[in-house]
Amino acid sequence: MRRANVSSDFVAAIDLGSNSFHMIVARISNGHVQILDRLREMVQLAAGLDRHNRLSAESQQRALDCLARFGQRLRHIPAARLRIVGTNTLRQARNSAEFVARAEQLLGHRVEIVSGQEEARLIYLGVAHSVGDVAGQRLVVDIGGGSTELIIGEQFDPLHLASLRMGCVSLTRACFADGRVTAARLRDAELLVQLNLEPVREEYLVRGLETVTGASGSIKAIQDVIISEGWSREGITLEGLRRLRMALLEVRDSAGVARRWQLEPARARVFVGGFVVLHGLCEALGVARMEVSEGALREGLIYDLLGRIRHEDVRDRTIADVIRRFDLDETQAERVSASALELLRQVRTPWKLAGREARSVLERAARLHEIGLLLTHDQYHKHGAYVLQHSELPGYSRNDQQLLAALVRRHRRSFPADAFADLPRDWARPARRLCALLRLAVVLHRGRSNEPLPAISLRVEGQRMFLSFPPAWLVEHPLTRADLQMEARVLRKAGFELRIGSATLAATPTSSRSSSEPSP
């Protein structure tokens, strides 16, 4: 292998969990994943949330110190081969944007915050690649610091996902904050677990799943304790959990847990919380035995990243599913998408939009720009943005959905200069330019005609856009020219200047369009 290409074979993933931060580095060899390095630190980020759901300065610094150590291992890995995701605590924290900005500056890479459903999907993917295949469906359980994921799947496909807001750190804070374990506290914690399980218990019970797999540090630690006591030879049994409950009442506190089972202090502090979640799940769902997987969220990130590298991006499958579910006009979506991508091809270098991600974002927004029509034509761009912002979209992080929704929101009508101010800083400017291209493509296909467009040339100089058509084509298509005139006026408010050839388009609306609708 040539030294210059060494980094191209490596991929990495970082899981910014509520209890621990994990990083794995892997090498892709002949299509297979070889794990080369694993790092884990129990940062216990969730312990830094105050009653207003704000991360303390101390917890942020603790997390950033960990990431600084991780960062040394990532220096030679390209951004396209690394994923960093935050989970429940960063979903909850009101000041998570502040922490994410500091983390991104420190690492030089983008940090994604994923939804509970997306977290569950990635966990299942990691587990499915780490354990043996089984006939039929399996249940995967992952107990994190702030949430617990329950996923039913078959082979590599998750079929049903739930994310419950309880975890080893959050339950410890609620019931065992000072480390003491009493019978009354155990009962209170067990009741909290049952209350969280109540909305989903029946739908999991009726499936009668025989294969159950656990993942996460809490479940691994519980397995180690049960095996060390001789209560199970392999995996976790319900009988072993019942005996462990009695043993916890004997040790009385987290210090006793650490001494009896030789656990590191950070793990011992949240051990009882994780145990109560797992025991409650197994009792409620009738799980007699659980195998334990080495793979979890970070392994799932690696395999999901591998799919993107191989052009098997789950996000493309998601877009196709959404188009079918909402019965969108695929022909119109393809027209707009093709024209938007052709305009991008012509300006990608001067506008610094040459990356694959920019092309993918524009294509997906173009294919979904009419999703709001399911509700009503009036304000459909706003309805579409809301749907995309708040739907569960497999493969998408919170920022991915925010970007997609923002482009759909601004593909017609008003386009203020600060339209993308709420996006992460590195996407705000590219998003404005991608939106300008999307708007032009929508204008050009407003008539929904099957007549192909002529060869159109787009040249840019900074924020100036020069759009050229063959001679006489606009004369023969006066409605399109009127639409472009109105679009020029709206683009000017966003800081763009649209010209045809060397002449600036007039901004005066024509009689064929109402001034109340300045852009298509």
From TrEMBL:
Residues 24-307 form the Ppx/GppA phosphatase N-terminal domain. Keywords: Hydrolase. It holds the Pfam family Ppx-GppA. InterPro entries: ATPase_NBD, GppA/Ppx_hydrolase, Ppx_GppA_C, Ppx_GppA_N, PyroPPase_GppA_Ppx. SUPFAM superfamilies: Actin-like ATPase domain (SSF53067), HD-domain/PDEase-like (SSF109604). Residues 314-487 form the Ppx/GppA phosphatase C-terminal domain. This is HD domain-containing protein.
